[in-house]
Amino acid sequence: MNKKKIIVFVACLAVLLAIQIKLLQPWLLDVASSDLFLEETQDLANPMAISNDMTALAFTHCNSYINKELNSDQAATFSNQPTNAWSIGNYEYIVNAEVDIANKDTPNSIYHYVCRIQYDKGDDLSGGSNYENWTVEGVTGLPDL
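The structure assignment produced for this chain is given below.
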Protein backbone atom coordinates (compact mmCIF):
# COMPACT_ATOMS: atom_id res chain seq x y z
CA MET A 1 0.00 0.00 0.00
CA ASN A 2 2.75 2.45 0.88
CA LYS A 3 4.62 1.66 -2.32
CA LYS A 4 1.55 2.50 -4.42
CA LYS A 5 1.12 5.87 -2.69
CA ILE A 6 4.73 6.79 -3.35
CA ILE A 7 4.47 5.78 -7.02
CA VAL A 8 1.23 7.74 -7.47
CA PHE A 9 2.77 10.76 -5.73
CA VAL A 10 5.89 10.68 -7.95
CA ALA A 11 3.74 10.21 -11.07
CA CYS A 12 1.52 13.18 -10.17
CA LEU A 13 4.56 15.30 -9.42
CA ALA A 14 6.08 14.38 -12.79
CA VAL A 15 2.84 15.31 -14.58
CA LEU A 16 2.65 18.67 -12.80
CA LEU A 17 6.27 19.40 -13.66
CA ALA A 18 5.71 18.46 -17.32
CA ILE A 19 2.64 20.71 -17.54
CA GLN A 20 4.59 23.60 -16.05
CA ILE A 21 7.57 23.16 -18.38
CA LYS A 22 5.68 22.41 -21.60
CA LEU A 23 2.57 24.61 -21.26
CA LEU A 24 2.66 27.21 -18.52
CA GLN A 25 6.21 28.53 -18.87
CA PRO A 26 6.09 29.09 -22.67
CA TRP A 27 2.72 30.82 -22.33
CA LEU A 28 4.07 33.16 -19.60
CA LEU A 29 7.12 33.98 -21.73
CA ASP A 30 4.85 34.83 -24.69
CA VAL A 31 2.75 37.14 -22.54
CA ALA A 32 5.82 38.86 -21.07
CA SER A 33 7.38 39.44 -24.50
CA SER A 34 4.15 40.72 -26.07
CA ASP A 35 3.02 44.34 -26.32
CA LEU A 36 0.49 43.76 -23.55
CA PHE A 37 2.51 45.79 -21.02
CA LEU A 38 4.03 48.25 -23.50
CA GLU A 39 3.23 51.93 -23.02
CA GLU A 40 4.42 54.07 -25.89
CA THR A 41 5.14 57.72 -25.08
CA GLN A 42 7.52 60.35 -26.34
CA ASP A 43 9.32 60.25 -22.99
CA LEU A 44 12.02 57.61 -23.19
CA ALA A 45 13.91 56.23 -20.22
CA ASN A 46 17.45 57.48 -19.72
CA PRO A 47 19.93 55.62 -17.50
CA MET A 48 22.03 58.76 -17.10
CA ALA A 49 21.09 61.62 -14.80
CA ILE A 50 19.56 64.45 -16.84
CA SER A 51 18.43 68.01 -16.36
CA ASN A 52 15.55 69.35 -18.45
CA ASP A 53 12.27 71.21 -17.97
CA MET A 54 10.38 68.13 -16.80
CA THR A 55 13.01 67.08 -14.24
CA ALA A 56 13.02 70.65 -12.92
CA LEU A 57 9.23 70.53 -12.56
CA ALA A 58 9.46 67.10 -10.92
CA PHE A 59 11.98 68.52 -8.43
CA THR A 60 9.71 71.49 -7.68
CA HIS A 61 6.66 69.30 -7.14
CA CYS A 62 8.58 66.85 -4.93
CA ASN A 63 9.62 69.81 -2.78
CA SER A 64 6.00 71.01 -2.62
CA TYR A 65 4.90 67.54 -1.53
CA ILE A 66 7.54 67.43 1.21
CA ASN A 67 6.51 70.90 2.45
CA LYS A 68 2.89 69.75 2.68
CA GLU A 69 3.81 66.58 4.60
CA LEU A 70 6.03 68.24 7.22
CA ASN A 71 4.70 68.93 10.70
CA SER A 72 3.67 72.48 11.54
CA ASP A 73 6.68 72.87 13.85
CA GLN A 74 9.14 72.02 11.06
CA ALA A 75 10.54 74.29 8.33
CA ALA A 76 12.32 73.08 5.21
CA THR A 77 14.96 74.81 3.10
CA PHE A 78 15.55 73.14 -0.25
CA SER A 79 18.58 73.29 -2.51
CA ASN A 80 18.26 75.27 -5.76
CA GLN A 81 18.51 72.19 -7.93
CA PRO A 82 18.50 68.43 -7.45
CA THR A 83 21.67 66.46 -6.93
CA ASN A 84 20.52 64.07 -9.69
CA ALA A 85 17.33 63.44 -11.62
CA TRP A 86 16.49 60.54 -13.90
CA SER A 87 13.72 59.98 -16.39
CA ILE A 88 12.64 56.34 -16.12
CA GLY A 89 10.22 56.57 -19.03
CA ASN A 90 6.49 57.18 -19.37
CA TYR A 91 6.92 60.57 -17.66
CA GLU A 92 8.14 59.05 -14.41
CA TYR A 93 11.08 60.68 -12.68
CA ILE A 94 13.37 59.93 -9.79
CA VAL A 95 14.77 63.00 -8.06
CA ASN A 96 17.66 62.89 -5.60
CA ALA A 97 18.20 66.08 -3.62
CA GLU A 98 18.86 67.44 -0.17
CA VAL A 99 16.76 69.43 2.25
CA ASP A 100 17.62 71.25 5.46
CA ILE A 101 14.88 70.64 8.02
CA ALA A 102 14.65 72.81 11.11
CA ASN A 103 12.64 71.77 14.16
CA LYS A 104 11.68 74.02 17.05
CA ASP A 105 13.48 71.92 19.65
CA THR A 106 16.41 70.43 17.71
CA PRO A 107 19.15 71.86 15.52
CA ASN A 108 18.87 71.87 11.75
CA SER A 109 19.49 68.58 9.97
CA ILE A 110 20.39 68.05 6.33
CA TYR A 111 18.72 65.04 4.72
CA HIS A 112 19.29 63.49 1.32
CA TYR A 113 16.01 62.29 -0.11
CA VAL A 114 14.83 60.39 -3.15
CA CYS A 115 11.44 61.15 -4.64
CA ARG A 116 9.64 59.13 -7.31
CA ILE A 117 7.04 61.17 -9.15
CA GLN A 118 4.92 60.76 -12.28
CA TYR A 119 3.36 63.30 -14.61
CA ASP A 120 -0.21 62.13 -15.20
CA LYS A 121 -1.08 63.91 -18.46
CA GLY A 122 1.24 61.89 -20.72
CA ASP A 123 2.41 63.64 -23.88
CA ASP A 124 0.34 66.78 -23.11
CA LEU A 125 3.05 68.84 -21.39
CA SER A 126 0.95 72.01 -21.10
CA GLY A 127 -0.12 71.17 -17.53
CA GLY A 128 3.35 70.41 -16.20
CA SER A 129 3.46 73.35 -13.83
CA ASN A 130 0.16 72.36 -12.18
CA TYR A 131 0.80 70.30 -9.02
CA GLU A 132 -2.53 68.47 -9.48
CA ASN A 133 -1.20 66.81 -12.65
CA TRP A 134 1.58 65.00 -10.75
CA THR A 135 1.50 61.96 -8.49
CA VAL A 136 4.21 61.42 -5.89
CA GLU A 137 4.72 57.67 -5.67
CA GLY A 138 7.13 57.75 -2.78
CA VAL A 139 9.76 59.66 -0.82
CA THR A 140 12.60 58.04 1.10
CA GLY A 141 15.39 59.43 3.24
CA LEU A 142 13.27 61.73 5.41
CA PRO A 143 12.23 60.80 8.94
CA ASP A 144 8.52 60.79 9.79
CA LEU A 145 7.35 61.29 6.22
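Interim note for the steering committee: Residues 2-37 form one domain. The CA atoms of residues 54 and 125 lie 9 Å apart.
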